[in-house]
Amino acid sequence: MSKAIVHICKDEKFIQIAKHQFNKVYNQRNLYYIIVKDTSQSPKHVTVDQQTILIDYNDLHHISKKYSDNTVFIFHSITNNLITFIDAISKENRLIWMFFGMEIYNDESFYPRKQLLAPITFGLFPSKKPGFTYQLKNAFRPYVRIIKLNLPLSIKEKKIKAFNRFDNIGILHREDYLNIIKLGRIKKSTHFEFTYYPLELIVDVNEGIITDKRNILIGNSGHISNNHIDVFSKLSNFRLKNKIVIPLSYGDTNYIKKVKENAAFQISSQVEFLENFLSLEEYNQILKKVSVFILYARRQQGVGNIIALLWHGAKVFLSKENTFYHYLKRLGVIVFRYEDELSELSINQELSLDEIRNNREILFTHLNEERLISKLKEQMDSIL
After folding, report:
1. Residue 263: CB partners within 8 Å, gap ≥ 6?
2. Stretch 226-234: mean pLDDT
3. Which domains occur in the chain, in start order?
């Protein structure tokens, strides 16, 4: 009997591309459960078809009982609301976790806020850790459990237990996979190479290089992990010839307000905020005009943005703490460290055509749709 492939996901913009890839490999065996707040309303991002079912969190209990031990469950990210469901799935089933990032990097118990944020941003938005007594109790909880066997698991312990249910962790680059298993205390898992960003689905690979680039893009969203204000502080010492563009269409409202306030008095050149949601086509039109992209995120994020910007010919500065920086360097992509390579000289010098062509060639070699679909089939064949 063929194994069913059951996807558990929320209504995220990435999911439609995931459906495209999995359906190319096993069209009739995929079933997509999309978790939404209101099942009577059409989802915003995911197209509903015969393979797609809208559910809410209350429906998860029935799903865990519905499928036999001959099933592969693929979780596109994990939220705390899914932990009980993961525990209820028979251990005879295969579980794959497509890692988004927030599961670990947005949880201070796994990834300290002081590590996530640069100094100025951390000073403005310090840690919100629980009190000392609470932390002490959780630290000693495993030892107390030796005596009190029925002592309930803490939230962190529940998450670690859930993480360790997965046979495979899906992410593009091995550098972040190794980071995940270390931070998440995952004892056994296999790297499942997967990305939501096949090159042909995020850019027009047949389009030529546009050389008229007049914008500097900072960050990929209004999330605090972008460390915008630290970037502004550094740029305040530079004379800039290009306009600054800052995407803020989603993120934390208080943080976005502070970003806009600081940009007003720290940046001397013209600043434009992108606060409205843009289609992929509209956003690509903006990315084509970017000469320099600065992403001072100390964790991997904005991978689709980075790939698209490199393809369009932007000079990209990433944190040396970002695992995606090390992945790109390993491939031979021309990319720069934010910490010690961003200067007034380097920010005002664009990539040469030869450097852009080098980056395009490498990106296409590793991220073209045909290769990624082939790799997906190879990995799924070994599981099924």
Report:
1. 228, 232, 244, 246, 271, 273
2. 97
3. 4-98+164-196+370-383 (3.40.50.2000), 199-367 (3.40.50.2000)
